[in-house]
Amino acid sequence: MRLRLTVASIVLSGASGASALEIDYSVERDPGLKACDAHLFSGNRGEAERCYGALLSSSQDARVRGEASWSLGDLQTANSYFQTAIEIYPEDAHARARWGQLYLATHQNSEAVELFQEALQLQEEQIDAMLGLASVAAGRFEDRSRELVDQAIESYPDRLDARLLKARMILEEGNLEEADAVLEDAADIVERTDVVPLDFYALYAARDLLHGVTESPWETRALEMNPQFGEIYSVPAHFYVITRRYRQAVELYERAVETQPNLWSAHAELGVNLLRENRMDEAQRHLEIAYRGDPFSAQIVNTLRLIDSFDNFQVIERIPADPEEADHPGMILRLHNDEAAVLEPYVSDLVNDAIATFSERYQFDLKEPAIVELYPEHDDFAVRTSGLPGIGLLGVAFGYLVAMDSPTGRDEGDFHWGTTLWHELAHIFTLEATDHLVPRWFSEGVSVYEEWSTGPLPGRHIPLHVLQAIEEDKLLSITELDRGFIRPTYEGQVMVSYMQAGLVCQFIADRWGQQGLVDVLNGFGEGLTTAEVLDPALGITADAFDQGFDEFLQRELGATLANLSTWQEELGNALESLSSEDWLDAIEAADRAIVNYPDHVSDNSAYLVKARAHEELEQTDLAIGALESYWRLGGYEPTALKRLATWLAEDGRTADAVDVMSDALNVSPLDDETHVDLGGWLLAEQKPLEALREFEASLAMNPHDQAAAHYRLATAYQQLEDQTKTLEHVLYALEIAPHYREAQQLLLEIAR
Fold first, then answer.
1. CA nearest 678: which of 663, 667, 691, 666?
2. Could you tell me where the DSSP H helices lie in 633-722?
3. What is the 3-state secondary structure (H, E, C) of 339-371?
4. What pLDDT does residue 4 have?
């Protein structure tokens, strides 16, 4: 304990500042502190500060001094007093829990959790510690948060903050009816007791917002009580963010900081959401304000560092000169300096293809340019997404702005960047067509379905653990599907929900056609909920929809699910035989695995086992056949695709080699050899313009053999009959390597 207390004092050293109102709902609150609180909660900060200052002079109780220092914004001194208080009153569980709350206020959840657990060891049902643990779990969207807060309510039914925490979690899940019931219980507590109602007003204003009431009477009541209560706007703004309505969130956060200029959390959230709207300068200004008041927020620090790193990126605008005549408003790309020259043409082509595809399929034309950012450092992308490194996402869409990992943001072959970008671009259409009212399940479902049906990676790809969840009947009903994204109840449920949403959209398209998806999307744009949209859009009830979906799953996946255990056994046998170099047994076991699950092209695919075994047996034709099946089903391991393309070219199937290697670029676009080989095959197919792009990409990667890179460009320009450019690059090649025979011969051809 002594060591941890020492560490604690160092961690908070130098912390100071004011932020959100910290309301202590506990009955243990010192009467002198409550008298000062009354001034603070009414917006009379000057009088409150004089009151807290007087307590610091008059009280000898370190606990009171710690609370007074905290209320004055002097967190360093508050931390020291709490440390002293715990040494003087080691059995005071409430003081220990309040110290934990101080750590929560400075974004140090791990230390806070330790203190909450220590408080509960001293007092089994210490309410502030129970709610502290529940708050941490809720902030991480852990399912156990509901259990923790329910335990707190059972032990202390009149604690307003317990009811509010539960209502907040339910509102985040989108269950408005259940949240209303909890808020009614909270309203009863407010009416029966003298508790400070400001937090209640703010959450009820958020509830009104989710019910479509943007001018809530609770706003008026809160500001009458405390004209400087910025959280009456920032709390509802949080729910705009949760539902991905970032523009509206910005407006509320602006009102929050106007009302309470020292509400640092609102400045931080305003900055982050301005970034999501591509309003960089404004975002930086508010984040810098937030940092001055709250220098211990990792989100603020990391996001400011990210903005500084934008100097290392190129902003490439592809905006049509005449928007009226153009197919769409264009695009803005933010690509890292080290990758921009290579990636830009591939990203641009894919964005153009996606916009054309989705505009037609969802009957919606973009009103603004699509903004696409690719980050070669995954942690930078993670900060762009949430302000914190370490998240597992590949991409995210904020509306017209899409951010994702660059192909170099992960290990080669770890993800298919082309499919990721296709997925995120689909989000632009579902979000913007509905003014961001679309529920998460449908937006994600459309994106997954479009990956499978129109994206650069063919086929439906469902991970094994999702198939097992389907087999174990773990899928949610259509009206509850959003909950699987927000607060999962078992490991892997978020991915299960993604796949279920994609399958639901495939079910809709199969039964009602593409127009069915459009009609559902339009219904969400009118503000309908999932339960409300099914009848007008599809003419079906939620129960009938769930039944139809179950039947669809049986048709689509029944055979695979029935054979799943056999497939796992046979694939295991194939891999074991491959490891022991028993090639014939490996092939036989792989064939049996494929019969039981022919669509499996993920890690350790049976097709790859077959290809390797056939190659070892020098059965190249059979190896090609195995890899072709793997590729056509959507397998994308880059080494396998490059091997297949090389074999196809050697077999005289140059056009097929081009198709395979082009797909390899959607996984591994920064491999020089891939561009060189593909460019050569394109020239052989009399496609010099496409070959030119590959050779330009190769040169942009600054290859060791610069002479050869320029010579290849010269051959492409020669086929394009551009003599000037041909001469330019052949001379570059000869300047670097004067005795380069092929370049000399090409120069002679030009001279003739």
1. 691
2. 638-650, 654-664, 672-684, 688-700, 706-719
3. CHHHHHHHHHHHHHHHHHHHHHHHCCCCCCCEE
4. 38
- H/E/C letters for each residue in 489-504? CCCCHHHHHHHHHHHH
Q: Is the pLDDT of residue 513 over 70?
A: yes
- Residue 317 pairs in a beta bridge with 332
> Using CA atoms, how far apart are residues 713 and 704, in angstroms rounded to an integer?
15
Describe the crossing of helices 530-538 and 514-525 by its angle, rounded to 10 degrees.
130
141-150, 214-223, 396-405, 433-442: range with lowest mean pLDDT: 141-150
b/e map 423-438, b = 16+ CB within 10 Å: bbbbbbbbbbbbebbb
Dist CA 237 CA 203 (whole Å): 11
What would you report as the CA-atom Rg of the chain, rounded to the nearest whole angstrom? 31
| Contact predicate 70/95, CB 8 Å | no
Which pLDDT score, from 0 to 100, does residue 2 have?
A: 33
Taking the C-alpha atoms of residue 135 and residue 104, their distance in angstroms, rounded to an integer, is 9
Structure tokens at 750: 């030009």
- Taking only the tens place, the pLDDT of each residue in 25-60 is 999 999 999 999 999 999 999 999 999 999 999 999
In the chain, what are the domains? 1-123 (1.25.40.10), 197-296 (1.25.40.10), 311-474+488-519 (1.10.390.10)
Spell out the SS3 assignment of 447-459.
Answer: HHHHHHHCCCCCC
* Dihedral in degrees, nearest 10, Cα atoms 384, 385, 387, 392: -120
Is the predicted pLDDT of residue 18 greater than 60, yes or no?
A: no
What whole-number distance in Å separates Cα of residue 652 and Cα of residue 672? Answer: 23
Do 301 and 269 form a contact (C-beta atoms < 8 A)? no
Cβ–Cβ contacts within 10 Å for residue 504, how many? 25
Question: Up-side HSE of residue 130: CA atoms within 13 Å toward CB?
Answer: 22
CA distances from 617 to 239, 548, 580, 584, 607 (A): 61, 48, 14, 9, 15
pLDDT value at 16 more than 50:
no
Residue with tokens 């059995």: 91
Decide if 366 contacts 374 (C-beta within 8 A). no
Question: Band of the pLDDT at 188, cuts 50, 70, 90?
Answer: very high
Residues 483, 171: Cα–Cα separation, whole Å: 11
In the prediction, which pLDDT does 387 show?
A: 62
pLDDT at 500: 98
**Read out DSSP for 121-157?**
HHSTT-HHHHHHHHHHHHHTT-THHHHHHHHHHHH-T
Report helix, strand or coil for 565: helix
User: What span, in angstroms and rounded, lies between the C-alpha atoms of 697 and 318?
Assistant: 19
Joined tokens for residue 221: 């009541």
The answer to whether 66 and 2 are in contact (CB under 8 A) is no
Contacts of residue 289, Cβ cutoff 8 Å, sequence gap at least 6: 257, 264, 267
pTM higher than 0.85, yes or no? yes
